[in-house]
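Example 3.2
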Amino acid sequence: MKKVYIIHGYTGHPDKNWFPWLKSELEKDGVDVNVLAMPNTDAPQYLEWLQHIQSQVVNPDENTYFVGHSLGCITILQYLNSLKDGIKIGGVVLVAGFSTPIHFTELNSFFDVPLDEDKIKNNAGKIVAINSDNDPHVPYWQAEELAKRFDLELVTIHNGQHLNAKAGYKEIPIVLEKLKMIFGLKVN
């Protein structure tokens, strides 16, 4: 059975943004979905978030998938970075993601451990990034850098802001489409 873990971002919550919609859509296809409630979302700390994912994701394998939003993306990358050699997951969709510090200096602990690009690519299966070209928090050059650094597909949404509810996103069909493609399912 396919398992999807959705990781929200800074000040996020499992019931916000497009997470409930994505969970519902995936469950229609028999996918086991868990939208993790990350700890201390108003003052997140790298080690605490990493340990939370490690405690929730039991026996990750090629039927394990991740979807992250914003800070959830670097958290997923760090999780993949922490996996033992030989553990491979099915794939990842990063929404409004980044792999280098952004203007929120309070999040810099998430970059204390250097990312091993080769290890992450080997552990991740397929990675797709979806970013907006006018995100006020994640400049587009960071999306391009993320794509180049991890040799991943970058989907650009024009004028999507931070791809969250505040920007009008209660659903993001391209996230579901890319995840299904990673699953190997036909997309309508």
